[in-house]
Amino acid sequence: MAIIASNSAPGATQLEVRLRQVRLEADGIVSYELVAAGGEALPAFSAGAHIDLHIPGGMVRSYSLVNDPAETHRYMVAVHRVPDGRGGSAWMHGVPRVGDDLRISAPKNDFPLAEDASLSILFAGGIGITPLLAMARRLSTLGRPWRLHYSARSPQHAAFLDELRVLTQHGGELDLRFNSMGVPRLDLARLVKDAPADAHLYCCGPRSMIDDFLAASASRPQATVHYERFAAGTDAATAGGFDVVLQHSGLRLHVLPGKTILDTLLDNDISVQYSCSSGICGTCRTGVIEGGPDHRDDYLTDQEKRENRSIMICCSGSRSKTLVLDL
Ligand code: FES
């Protein structure tokens, strides 16, 4: 496979892969099978890992790997079409064809699985099933006990049901919640409270689900509480009314109300790397030379936010009149 020198995340490797298969998995959800163009093995990955997919025009989108982590002949991702998204899902659903070559990052894992847990309890909402499916596969391979609570609008909106049912034949438990069928919603507070103290808990889903999960898990040992957001926990700063100065060119731009710093840069044809546009992935991390950021991301640690040396320009704003960026 072609290995390309640089990546959206500094230091990471980029790969050229070929789209081998596209399949409708559920209403609005399509899966993509990616293989090395030359048929060689792909870099190994672990359950919970994701790849960054580079979309022409500078967009980068992160997608969890859903296939068995033991596989090195392919990567599988699934994409939910978001009608009001920022274009990544619309491009994925409309443009690539089987046989096309695409550019991705090597897998990275910000949501690793504790493989030796006495019990793993997985909470999935909608497309949040993707990293958790890879975890269920891995736990089944290891023969470790797992339980999956999977919530979706209807069976037609729930991807990978057949594969999950097969996995349960090897020891896992599956609790399906389809909102349209009158099944009571997941009682996260109760399920988390009833979980054995040494169980590891994982959650991936919409913002409200993650927030409920974190509230329910607040008193548990935090090393056993794991989550991955695909929507930010805090709204982006769009009040505007401040200037950004690009240190290297000296260019000064005014951020208007309704715009983020990233919007302002892109509107002025300034090319920067970004991916999730939601303060989650870290791709748009930018150095701060001067000024006080208004941090809105879920990526930087509290300590990093206090130090004010970096800002996620896709969602964070400024508390000072001027922000000087290392751009
Ligand atoms: S683009 Fe992902 S954190 Fe900004």
3D structure, described in words:
This protein is an alpha/beta fold. It has 3 domains: 3-105, Translation factors (Elongation Factor Tu (Ef-tu), domain 3, Beta Barrel), CATH 2.40.30.10; 120-229, Rossmann fold (3-Layer(aba) Sandwich), CATH 3.40.50; 242-325, Ubiquitin-like (UB roll) (Roll), CATH 3.10.20. Helix content is 18%, strand content 31%. It has helices at 88-94, 129-142, 161-168, 188-194, 207-216, 261-267, 302-307, and strands spanning 3-4, 14-26, 29-36, 50-55, 59-64, 75-80, 101-105, 120-125, 146-152, 173-178, 200-205, 225-229, 242-246, 252-255, 285-290, 293-294, 310-312, 317-318, 322-325. The strands form 4 sheets. Strands 1, 2, 3, 4, 5, 6 and 7 form a 7-stranded antiparallel beta sheet that branches. Helix 4 (188-194) runs parallel beside helix 5. The longest helix is centred in the middle third of the chain and has 14 residues, at 129-142. It is globular. The two termini are 32 Å apart. It binds FE2/S2 (inorganic) cluster. FE2/S2 (inorganic) cluster is lined by residues 274-277, 279-284, 297, 299, 312, 314. FE2/S2 (inorganic) cluster (FES) binds at residues 274-277, 279-284, 297, 299, 312, 314.
